[in-house]
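An instance follows:
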Amino acid sequence: MPIWIHSIHRSFLGKYKGSLSPLRVDDLVVHLLSHQARFCPEGVYLGCANQAGEDARNIARLAVLLSNLPDSTPAVTVNSLCGSGTHALEYAWLQLKAQRFETLWAGGVEHMTRSPFVCLPPHIEKDAIWQDSTFGWRFKHPDFQESIAGRSMLHHADMLGQDLPRERLDAVALQSHQRAGVHQRFFRRESIALYDNKGALLLDADECVRPDLNTEMLERLKPVRQGGIHTPAHLAPYADGACGAVLSLKFAGFSEDLYEGNVAIELVDILHIATAPDAMPLAGLEALNAMMKKHDLALKDVACFELHEAFASAYLLQCDALGLDALQEERINRCGGGLALGSPMGATALRSVCTLAHRLREEGDARCPYGLATISIGMGLGASVLLKRHV
C-alpha cells in the first residue's frame, strides 16, 4: 500500500540569535501547519528535541490549537534528538500503513536561539549550576561522566576522522556554502518565508549560508577541541527552523501548487538503527546501507542522495565508504547541506527529506527513480528514508 507525499515544505532557516529570535517556537510550527492546512490532515506528529521552554508541554498540540486546523485534530510530540523529524514521519507513515487515517501531517521543529537556561531546584541540589539547554548534555547521569557514552558527538567525530587532512575538511565546508548560495532560488520552492505576529517579514532566505566564504578564511580557523580536527566551519551551526510533510493514502501529484505535470513522490520506507555511541558519526551510513540491502538497490538506482553534514569528517567518511567523490559527485547534496544551512535539531532530518523530495521531482527518472536521505543521530542512532518518483 503506497504512501504519497502530497506536500513537504520547510521554513527558511535562521541562524542562532538571528532574525527569528522574536518568533516563538510554537508560532514557528503554526506557519507550516497553516501553510499546509488545505490538505486537511486528520492528525499531527511533530519532532522536537529540546522541549525545555516554549516547546514544552506537547508543542504539537499547542501548535494545532494556535493554527487554523480544527481543535478535534489529535497531535503528538516525539523526541529522538536530530532524528525527531524522521521519527515523526515514521509514526505517521505507520499509522497510514495500518489504515487508521487517510491523511496526516508530520513535522519537525527547533528554535535553538530561544532555548532556556535550566537548573535543578534547591530541594534536589543546593547551589545547583544553571545549564544551557541549547545543545548537548544537561543534568548528566553520574554513570556517564567518564564513559564513552558521556563524551560529546564532536569528540567522537574527532576520533573517527583524525586521519583526514585539514584540506579535505575545508574543501567540503567551502563547497557546502557555495552550493547552497548558488541554489537559493531552488530552495524557494521548498521553503516559506516567516513573519512576526504583526505581519512584518522576519526571514525569506537561509541565514547561515556564507557565499562569501573562501579558503583563506577557513585556513585561519582553529579546532574547537584541543587536539581535535574540526574548526567551527566543519560543524553544522545551530539554527532555528521547522519542516512539515503531508502524507496520504490518496494518490496525488507532488506539490501540485509548485510544479506542472503529474509526477508523484512515494514514501517507500523509513529505517532507524542503533550503533555504539562512539560510532554515532557514521550511524547514518549504516542506516543507508541497511536500506539499500533491504530493497536490493545499487548506487546506480539512486538519482539523488541527501547526507546530513553534521561534521565534515563524517560526511567525507560516508562518501568515501560509498565510493563516491564528495567534491565531484553531484548526486550527493547538490544544493549544499547542514554545514551551510545549519541544523535545527528537531527539524534537521526532515529538512534533508524535504530537499530530497524536491530534488527527486526534478532529477529522478524511470531509470533512476529513487532518492535516499540519511542522518547520524546523537547517542548512536541513525536514520534513512527512501523515496520513489512516479510518473
In short: The chain has eleven helices and 15 strands. The domain at 4-115+170-390 is CATH 3.40.47.10 (Peroxisomal Thiolase; Chain A, domain 1). The CA atoms of residues 134 and 275 lie 24 Å apart.
